[in-house]
Amino acid sequence: xxxxxxxxxxxxxxxxxxxxxxxxxxxxxxxxxxxxxxxxxxxxxxxxxxxxxxxxxxxxxxxxxxxxxxxxxxxxxxxxxxxxxxxxxxxxxxxxxxxxxxxxxxxxxxxxxxxxxxxxxxxxx
Length: 125
What we know:
This protein is an alpha+beta fold. The chain has a single domain (3-123), classed as Roll (Pnp Oxidase, Chain A), CATH 2.30.110. 29% of the residues lie in helices and 38% in strands. The chain is built from two helices and seven strands; from the N terminus they run ββββαββαβ. Strands 2-1-5-6-7-4-3 form a seven-stranded antiparallel sheet.
């Protein structure tokens, strides 16, 4: 089993990003997998996005909704996706996976004036 297999058919991913001082910050997030890449949609001004812009080295693990890790931590590289076609495709995958819950969160973000961004995560083998 390769590292990517543990993410198949899972609902949550614990994403650990790193502050400038090296301290890790763990955040449970929804995700989808497309080929060898994991994708996360999140608020563009969130702390995790700011940390990834500064340092793309992250760790990921399968987890429960509350962030309790249920799989092995894996080193990965993350970056923001700016390609509109990729964003559209991934948004469609997220809609299929999370359905109504995703739409509710999108409406809440829109009311708060939040802008979303997409993160691509590639595991280091």
